[in-house]
Amino acid sequence: MVDDDKGKIEDATVESGQTPLNDEARRHFLQGGIAVAAGLVLLSIGALDKVFRFFFGPRLTEQEETTILRAHVKYSEQTLSLEKLELEREHNNYIFVAALADLDQTTGKYFIDYDMGPALAFLGSDGLPDLLSAKCTHLGCTVGNQTNDKGQVLCPCHVSYFDIKTGAPTPDSPAKTPLPHLGWVLMDKQKKVLASRSAAGEISGDIGHAKQQGADVYIQKTAGAV
Amino acid sequence: MKMLTTAVDFLAQRFPVEKMNFQSMVQKKTVPVHRMSWAYYLGGLTFLFLVIQVITGLLLLFYYEPTVSDANLSVEYIMNHVSAGALIRNMHAWSSSCMIFFAAIHLITAFAMKAFTKPREVTWIAGVLLLVITMVLGFTGYLLPWNQIAVNATKVGLQSVDAVGQYLPGALSQLPHIVRETFQGGPMVGQATLTRFFALHVVLLPLALAGLLGLHLLMVQLHGMSQGVDKVATKTESFFPIFFFKDLSLWAGIFLVVFVVALCLPFDSFLPFPLLEPYNPLGATPPSIKPEWYFYFIYYPLELLPFWVILLATMLGSAVLILTPWIFKDTSRRTLRYIAMVASVYLFTATVFGQRIYELIKK
């Protein structure tokens, strides 16, 4: 029986030049090929639809358009205000920081110094402003404005702690040099200078009177600034 | 005259003109088959991720706006409104990490297999430079969404360049400062920085990468795959079509994985803070700020050790990497494997356990 079948296969091979096994393989190959091609067609339709819509651009609702426009205006104004700050620093000899009454001992107020760098204004224990650069002396990140229970602010980039009174980093901080202190000027509402302190700490003017007057805190342009 | 002859001989051996034909570079090329053969696929995979980067990067250019007022908003627009925008950006972000990962593994395995010896010195040096460019592409691309993390990370990176100046003598000490200001484009990180980084990220660095990659691939095709193991492989397979189609099959599988991951898992989902929080110049640096994972190997040591130690280690490491073909010319593959293993263990530990080690030491 087996020999007969073998004989038939051999005959078939001789007649057609191919074995039935080859035919079957070809059939599977064709079926597989058609399936893959169909899959590719479907995938292409899906992909083309996405691709077309990608290049065509989104169709936004009115509300979405308004939200995006509002955000655009907000960020543009923010950028513009920074440019105004830069212009202000180029032309003004004094820059407003905050009202003395608004300063706090534990939460510093951020402001931009004459070099367009970040700075912090605290209220010292003597009731006078304490201004220091907020640019970390390690690698330039902006330090935090909240003091811990030791009166230190943190630079989170490489974890340096700085004492806000002295500006000095703690010994185990990667930063090795203190945050520089900035000088300040106290003025009344008519912009009359009442008192001032240099970056080195020298005080001039009537401090007691300035405190009572509800003075505003300014920084003054120095020879090297801008 | 002798120097000129030596230089000409050196170039002739590295760029053999007689082999610069299709038959020699493709048809006759064979790939050794041995226990380290898998490493021959790593360069191709890195190339696949580069292709994904180029295509998705080009698509992102249709909507991205490189201005400080609109950069962040345009990224948000891509993610939330553009058809397949989130998928494209996720693929760009995921494949950038994959590209750096596979480029690093490719370099380590090439070192362990001693694939840098004569006449493959140029291939090695081009490869090292390609890895550096890839990492700089990662650094420059990081700033483009203009968020709080990105801008502060860029400040740190640029300030690191500036900090080098204190260790240089005389007038040279000003050089890093000039370099930093050139890249920064102004007294602080702002619009000029974003414009410069954008130009670097989408034009200059890709051009440099394309040139070096061309050289690297030409060298690989000219000199063939390195032996890789001490015992000469008895079995080989043809580069075309066998290895080539195996490579393509692997690419298809990996592409599918990246595609599905990008579809299901936003790259930002691993970050402890919203990536789309726009940069505010009057805001503090966010707590737990960190660079991308591929900089951890240098970030954690920077937190724990003095800057000069890191600087010295970086300079030494870079010099050793560039001069590897000459320094390790006579070193056995066994020793090279140990060195590669030590380097891998360090990179793995610093990347995966860096934070824990840092906390343990600081406590």
Task: Note down, in words, how this protein is organized.
The mean pLDDT of chain A is 85. Chain A has four helices and eleven strands. Chain A is an alpha+beta fold and 226 residues long. In chain A, strand 9 (193-197) and strand 10 form a beta hairpin. Chain B is mainly alpha-helical and 363 residues long. Chain B has a domain at 35-279 and 290-296: Cytochrome Bc1 Complex, Chain C (Up-down Bundle), CATH 1.20.810. Chain B has helices at 2-14, 22-27, 42-60, 71-80, 85-112, 121-143, 148-163, 175-184, 191-223, 239-264, 296-304, 307-327, 333-362, and strands at 30-33, 235-238. Chain B has a two-stranded antiparallel sheet with strand order 1-2. The model of chain B has no long low-confidence stretch (mean pLDDT 91). Classes of the chains: A alpha+beta (226), B mainly alpha (363). Chain A binds chain B through residues 50-51, 53-58, 60, 64, 68, 71-72, 75-76, 78-79, 82, 110-112, 115-118, 134, 138-145, 154-159, 172, 174, and chain B through 59, 62, 67-70, 72-73, 76-77, 81-85, 88, 152, 155-156, 158-160, 162-163, 187-188, 190-191, 278, 280-289, 302-304, 306-307, 362.
